[in-house]
Amino acid sequence: MIALRATEYCDARTVKTEHGITVAIYTAEGACAAQDPQAQPGTCSNNWVRYMVVLANQKITPPVEVGGKGRMTDTGVRISSGTIEVKGRSLGPKDSMCCPSVPETKTFKISPSGRIHQVLPLAARPNAAK
Fold it and tell me: Own/partner pairs for 48-51, CB < 8 Å, 24+ apart?
């Protein structure tokens, strides 16, 4: 098990409720994944990761990673028919770390067991028809 040591950047928290589902996306800054047990939370680097938890059917899902430094930066959330779409931007080949420019959408579903999983686009699925 990896111990994550980080602090939350509260100003970047996103909370949205629609159709009886509440989505919270939050940032863990300076994540120290078992790097230095003596370090104060949030002091290990300028790394940041965005996580999502969902409250649905009186259950809270475990967190899933939706983006972070060098990956997708989320800009919006849409909830519809038990599907959660997280929209954002990812780094293009000529983008600097500050300024992602490539639109990206990640789609998630809540399983009957209360876990959340990403639904891959058809083209990204193994054995997808070509």
Answer: 48/9, 49/6, 50/25, 50/26, 50/74, 51/25, 51/26, 51/27
